[in-house]
Design brief:
The complex is a heterotrimer of chains A (321), B (281) and C (456). With 321 residues, chain A is mainly α. Chain A is 73% helix and 3% strand. Chain A has helices at 20-24, 26-63, 82-89, 91-124, 129-141, 144-155, 161-168, 180-208, 212-220, 225-253, 257-262, 274-284, 288-320, and strands at residues 66-70, 73-77. The chains are: A mainly alpha (321), B mainly alpha (281), C alpha/beta (456). Chains in contact: A-B, A-C, B-C.
Chain lengths: 321, 281, 456
């Protein structure tokens, strides 16, 4: 048993091992390990596939045919790209795409920066960390609909506290949710408040797993606090932050509850992201075909983005290892 | 705490404390607003200018939530669904996460990306076909109507998280366990898992919270009063033109308590996981 | 040691198992959506038994959102009274979401998924065309004779008709009223305004005198309620949205521009706060009831809300209510938009006889009187509306017969898009981003493309 851990066995981003043992009897060992892997994964995969494949396939089928809602279900007829062409030509969709991307970029950037900062602070906290962690999880564990109601209550122009504060400091009573840019900003603030703890927790869990010996080694080399942060903490945190960014981007693209309750996509459709557009198309206008097209294309966009992200990340991790 | 901090860098200490205070204020201020609204009398909730502290204090909103609406029932339903789903997700996710993080499975990357795609697909589009599916099996208005979909939809996320933590565990420990003749399951249970408790905790809390707060599927599948979960139940508070903020916030305060308690309980695991990992060999 | 062949076979068998499971699910689901609905029994057979509505028995579910927020619950009271009258029928209440859009989405999921429950649902008055076209509600004309429909106040049945078939039975009605502060008018020695122009100047006067923070509040947020408000000004100016065939917009007219211009001028003159672009019913009601506004346009609940101290309300005893005013030179009073709820039948319901019995009872004078006298809802049956007991209940019910009603253009299945064209453009105009005439013509062209094609 080694007494002082060396750098972890080299692995790439998806964990392919290069350890000596595996190299000695490659084929038989690998196959046995692979079979074991599939056996262990099978229960999870069966559950996921069983529940999700049919609905998703059906939704994709809906997006590619003419759908009419009847009392007996849906009647899908024909194979057509007309739903997609309707979608691409609709100014509402183009704006929703722009808004969703803008929203994702800004909120994820802010949350990752803030979340990492909070995680760093928490990690250094000796006493009361447990209390702070419990507190951190409170906004995140709130039901999104309730969070939206809370901020609706805060932004209310008649009895909301924010306008009250603004009037006391001489800013008048701005109509926050009724004007485009303030409404977008208000939405972002509500989201940042609620989900920064999510990022902070993920980053914190990654932080505490950094072996202390790295820091000891850095000290021995005479590194200051800041240098240790840049040279030890951040690189070790990279996979964790990447994971946090990945999942936040996924969540942000599916943004629904918050704008649905806070602004209903308004004023006009200036705070309408893709998911709300799909919902309105399907359940308000009963345009299931175009609505399914929006949903499917959104999922596709995000997947492409994430795959690209992972490839870049792997390439970077590969060059550093 | 790392030794270098204990060398007495007072600036670091003060910086940390100040930062902690800022974080505290950031989190607490909107929460304060919600909690005080819950304790205002119903008629003071929408008074203008708003009261910065409830005057008089009142628990009318809380009693209203439980008596006028069956909030207690909703809590039980949410708890059952969330606990069972989280347990399932953790068990299945640990096995799959370990397999995909450690074992040389060909096509594993494809599967991971597929899982990603599934977790990303907008819920709205799948709710209607899923509803028809559940209706055919006869599982509408039951606990399993939510448990199975929740497990399926939240597994990909948990697998990704757990896999990440499994990959960060040094291989030497597993290999020495293998030399000692331990079966894979035993290796996972006694060697790998204790090191990745923070990851389990993270995945568990996230799954629990996701189940606790999920709205769209709960609204569509469990319409009947006896199986309704909290988010759907709260959606019923008030009237067509009247939003009972007081009732909603009172219910929210109550709904948040279990999670806060959970985290507080499990924080010890995180700490012990920390210290165990720090002392190796 | 297993060979590669056996390993591969095991993986393939696992894959096969997954495929089989998926195929099984797909087969089950597909068969349900393609097989004819077995619950829709032959219309002929049920028509005879349910036309009389007496031989029905069984269990039915009623989907309804909360009608009031206070105890007792009117839905429970009505169910109990119904079961006393028809002991063989048992009704289970399913409480629906309070938000009408969430309610609709939930119903669409349920019914298009083929569920036979709920049997009867309480739905918004603007749903008949949309639901009728998509087969999400049964036509009631096949079960109920025309003598039944003539019991209702004029305009209500028309609003529930699509393609010559009536889909909803008017359950209780709502309309816009003008609430005003008697005490403030008296203080400023102003008579009760009879025209919009007069109201505007009164509101400005009272606000400038420092008696209230706002003059006149209404619903101007970007949502369905704005369409209701706009229809009232439009109707008073003599205009409509769609032609009688429901396939072309006639909104871009002198009346349309006049209505839009007036709404904008309310803000620019200071009578209405700029914040009205975020007001839904809740905010406007709250502002008026806490004494911050002199005039309010709201639905019928405004009376009971403002007269109940715990709402919160600080204006108990100071409020008057009247039909909405009209424009100078136009017929008086102004038009009030029709709101309210209808009762619909699920096409998959297994017990249409009991459903029709339930609906007939809920729209009978007995039930309507309960709704009006115990819960202050506006009844839909003419005889009940005109009865002395109901009229004496509160000032709102007393003046219901004096108002002029205007429906929203909901007879087109594309109504959701029509309404959206109206409220997004009018809201944008109210915030000053576009001019009234530009907003009206943009709305008109969007309406035209909505009723002609389907799309996003």
């Amino acid at each position: 048993m080694s007494t002082s851990p060396v750098a972890p066995a080299p692995v790439d981003a998806i964990g392919r091992s290069a350890s000596p043992r595996a190299k000695r009897h490659p084929d038989a060992f690998r196959r046995q390990q692979a079979r074991l892997g599939w056996a262990l994964s099978a229960p999870a995969l069966v559950v996921v596939a069983g529940v999700t494949i049919f609905p998703i396939a059906y939704a994709i089928a809906m997006s590619l045919s003419n759908v009419t809602a009847t009392g007996n279900g849906f009647s899908l007829s024909g194979l057509t790209g007309s739903n997609y062409s309707i979608m691409v030509q609709a100014p509402q969709w183009r704006y929703a795409l722009f808004f969703t991307i803008l929203y994702t970029v800004i909120t994820v950037a802010v949350e990752v920066a803030l979340g990492t900062g909070i995680a760093l602070v928490l990690e250094r906290l000796a006493a009361g960390r447990g209390w702070m962690m419990a507190l951190l999880l409170v906004p995140w564990s709130m039901i999104t609909v309730i969070n939206a109601e809370l901020w609706l209550y805060i932004y209310n122009p008649v009895y909301g506290v924010l306008d009250n504060i603004f009037s006391h400091i001489g800013l008048g009573t701005p109509v926050i949710l009724g004007t485009r840019v303030p409404a977008i900003a208000a939405l972002m603030v509500a989201d940042v408040w609620k989900t920064t703890p999510f990022v902070a927790i993920i980053v914190l869990a990654g932080l505490v797993m950094i072996p202390r010996d790295y820091y000891e080694a850095a000290e021995v080399d005479g590194a200051t606090g800041w240098q240790a942060f840049w040279k030890v903490t951040l690189p070790q945190l990279r996979p964790t932050i990447a994971l946090a960014v990945l999942f936040r981007v996924l969540q942000a693209f599916g943004l629904f509850d918050l704008p649905f309750v806070l602004t209903s996509g308004g004023p006009g459709y200036s705070t309408q992201p893709l998911a709300v557009l799909a919902y309105n198309a399907m359940f308000r206008d009963l345009d299931f075909g175009p609505g399914a097209a929006v949903a499917t294309s959104t999922a596709l966009l995000v997947v492409v983005g994430c795959v690209a992200f992972i490839k870049v990340f792997r390439a970077q991790a590969g060059t550093e290892a | 705490m790392r030794n270098r901090s204990r060398r007495g860098w007072r600036r670091v200490f003060n910086g940390v404390n100040l930062a902690t205070l800022l974080v505290f204020l950031f989190i607490v201020t909107p929460l304060y607003w919600m909690i005080t609204a819950a304790f205002k009398t119903p008629s003071n909730v929408e008074v203008s200018p708003p009261q910065y502290f409830p005057h008089p204090l009142s628990v009318a909103n809380f009693t209203d939530a439980f008596s006028h609406y069956s909030f207690g029932r909703y809590i039980v339903n949410s708890a059952v669904v969330a606990v069972v789903s989280t347990a399932l997700v953790l068990v299945l996710g640990t096995l799959a996460g370990y397999a995909m993080g450690r074992l040389p499975m060909r096509g594993r990357f494809t599967v991971l990306v597929l899982l990603l795609m599934i977790s990303v697909f907008p819920e709205i589009a799948v709710v209607v076909p899923l509803y028809a599916l559940l209706r055919d099996i006869g599982w509408l208005n039951s606990y399993q109507a939510l448990i199975i979909p929740y497990t399926a939809f939240f597994l990909p996320f948990a697998i990704w998280i757990l896999r990440n933590y499994f990959m960060a565990v040094p291989r030497e420990m597993e290999e020495s366990a293998r030399i000692d003749g331990a079966s894979p399951l035993r290796t996972i249970w006694s060697v790998v898992l204790p090191q990745t408790l923070p990851g389990l905790f993270t995945a568990g809390v996230f799954t629990f919270t996701a189940c606790w707060t999920e709205f769209l599927m709960a609204l569509s599948f469990n319409v009947s009063e006896s199986y309704r979960t909290i988010p759907v139940g709260v959606a019923l508070f008030g009237g067509q033109f009247i939003t009972s903020y007081g009732d909603i916030f009172a219910a929210s305060v109550v709904a948040v308590v279990p999670i806060a308690v959970l985290v507080f309980i499990f924080r010890r695991n995180v700490v012990s996981g920390l210290t165990a990992g720090a002392v190796k060999g | 040691m297993k060979t590669a062949h056996q390993t591969g076979r095991r993986r393939r068998s696992m894959q096969a198992a997954v495929v089989c499971a998926v195929a099984a699910f797909a087969a089950a689901a597909c068969s349900s959506s393609s097989s004819p609905s077995t619950s829709a029994s032959a219309p002929g057979a049920s028509a005879t038994s349910s036309a009389s509505g007496n031989a029905a028995s069984g269990n039915i579910t009623w989907w309804a959102s909360p009608i009031t927020t206070t105890s007792p619950d009117p839905r429970v009271v009505l169910i109990n009274a119904f079961e006393k009258a028809y002991p063989k029928i048992h009704v289970t209440l399913q409480s629906a979401p309070t938000d009408t859009d969430t309610n609709r989405a939930s119903l669409i999921t349920t019914i298009s998924g083929g569920a036979s429950s709920p049997d009867v649902f309480m739905g918004d008055v603007i749903w008949p065309a949309q639901f009728g076209k998509a087969g999400l509600a049964s036509s009631l004309s096949q079960y109920l004779p025309s003598s039944y429909w003539s019991n209702f106040a004029p305009g209500l049945v028309q609003g529930a008709t699509y393609n010559g078939q009536v889909y909803g039975a008017p359950f209780f009605e709502d309309q816009g009223f003008l609430y005003y502060r008697k005490d403030l008018l008296a203080k400023e020695h102003l008579p009760v305004p009879t025209t919009w122009e007069q109201l505007e100047s009164d509101a400005v006067k009272i606000k400038n005198a420092g008696l209230t923070k706002y003059g006149y509040v209404w619903q101007g947020a970007s949502y369905e309620g704005l369409t209701c408000n706009f229809m009232e000004y439009l109707g008073s100016a003599g205009g409509t949205v769609l032609n009688s065939d429901m396939n072309k917009s006639v909104l871009d007219s002198a009346a349309g521009v006049k209505a839009a211009t007036f709404m904008r001028s309310l803000i620019t003159s200071g009578a209405t706060p700029a914040a009205v672009t975020t007001f839904q019913e809740g905010q406007a009601m709250s502002a008026f009831a806490t004494g911050q506004a002199a005039f309010l346009r709201n639905w019928d609940y405004g009376w009971s809300y403002s007269q109940t101290k715990s709402s919160p309300s600080s204006v108990v005893g100071d409020v008057g209510v009247m039909p909405l005013p009209s424009f100078q030179g136009q017929p008086s009073p102004g038009t009030s938009n029709i709101g309210g709820w209808n009762l619909y039948v699920n096409p998959h319901s297994k017990n249409t006889a009991a459903d029709i019995t339930f609906i007939k009872w809920m729209t009978s004078p007995a039930a309507q009187t309960i709704l009006a006298t115990q819960f202050s809802e506006i009844p839909t049956v003419t005889s009940v509306r005109n009865s002395a007991a109901v009229k004496a209940k509160n000032p709102v019910l007393a003046i219901v017969g004096q108002t002029r009603l205007i429906p929203r253009p909901a007879q087109t299945p594309q109504y959701a898009k029509v309404s959206q064209a109206i409220y997004t453009n009018i809201n944008s105009m109210l915030s000053g981003a576009t001019s009234p005439s530009a907003a009206v013509s943009a709305a008109a062209s969007q309406i035209n493309s909505a009723v002609k094609t389907s799309g996003l």
